[in-house]
Amino acid sequence: MAFLKVVPLEKALEVINSFQLEPKIESVPLSEALGRVLAEDVASPVDVPPFDRATVDGYAVRAEDTFMAGESEPVRLKVVGEINAGDTPTVELEPGESVYISTGAPLPGGADAVIQFEDVDREGEEVIIYKPAYPGLGVMKAGADIPKGKVLLKRGTRLTFKDTALLSAVGFSEVKVFRKPRVAVISTGNELVLPGEELKPGQIYDINGRAIADAVRELGGEAVFLGIARDNRESLKALIEKGIECCDIVLLSGGASGGIRDLTSSIIEELGEVKIHGIAIQPGKPTIIGLINGKPVFGLPGYPTSCLTNFTLLVAPLLRRLLGRESEVRKVRKKLAHKVFSVKGRRQFLPVRVEGEKAVPILKGSGAVTSFVDADGFIEVPENIEILEAGEEVGVTFFG
Prior knowledge:
Blueprint: H1 9-17, E1 25-29, E2 42-43, E3 53-54, E4 58-61, E5 75-83, E6 97-101, E7 113-116, E8 120-123, E9 126-129, E10 139-140, E11 151-153, H2 161-169, E12 174-178, E13 182-188, E14 192-193, E15 204-205, H3 208-219, E16 222-229, H4 233-246, E17 249-253, H5 264-271, E18 273-277, E19 281-282, E20 288-292, E21 295-300, H6 304-322, E22 331-336, E23 340-341, E24 347-355, E25 358-361, H7 369-374, E26 377-381, E27 387-388, E28 393-398
Parallel strand pairs: 5-6, 13-16, 13-17, 14-15, 17-21, 19-24, 22-25
Antiparallel strand pairs: 1-12, 2-11, 3-10, 4-6, 4-7, 5-9, 8-9, 18-20, 20-21, 22-28, 23-27, 24-25, 24-26, 26-28
Helix pairs in contact: 3-6, 4-5
């Protein structure tokens, strides 16, 4: 068993990228597609609008019949019918004829313009027109909004309400999306209790289970929280096996250190293979990466900030790949608010809070709950750097 044979972060990512996991595709009803990620480009199967339609209430005319209209010599056209939105026109305009038409209604045959009713007078069965109309006046042509065949949304788009509205407008009742990867989430430790339970001396509430599960959901995955494994082989093995049975990926927090209570790596080795046990980063050095039945298993650190930093570095890229969202990494450049000291030879990821154009380091330690809660993300301090000066530009990688 490879125990704490520390490897560079790049090696860990290389191992994760080598996992034979491919995005899976499913069709879902449009009513359930909000927030899902498209698995293919979507083109419009129809013209929008599907017919030439009126954009105003008024009179559909043949524009050429109005060319001689003027204030002193208006043109009179016979009104031969009425068309409302939703009607199917049965009239074909002949020279000298018009039809009253409502906004959104289809133009009758022969018509190529609509004059709004405020610009004309009506006397009995005639409409009096005082100025010429031109072809296309008051009309939206078929396909003018969305032509048939136009690509509306690209593969990898995470659908917003505007996107689902657009799909509805062109008649989609279902769409193909990437299936949500199912992720088993397991917290470990005798000291942990679930929120809502009585807190006894020496115990703390579990934060990682909630944080990891919701981080998975925020990315678009499906999180299955399996509970807290106690520091004994039977409890931990049972939950790992349950996670492998029901999910695509298993995430554990805690139980990854080199201490006497570390069982995670030995159980992974028993059920599958430990690929990595130890990454040359701080925090999160004792992180475990393994495979059981072809499914990735991650043993993340127990401290909240370490846990979520390593989730962002290692697990989030895999989830984004399975969701077709590889490009969605949130990073910004900010100026460091004050000087930071690091240990030379150790690659460090330091939590920071973003305030305007500044990145404010949070130095309470990764075991403090507020280190994680107060942080917007983290910065990387390379192993050959001992000091980052105040005002120095740094790259901030956001959590989530």
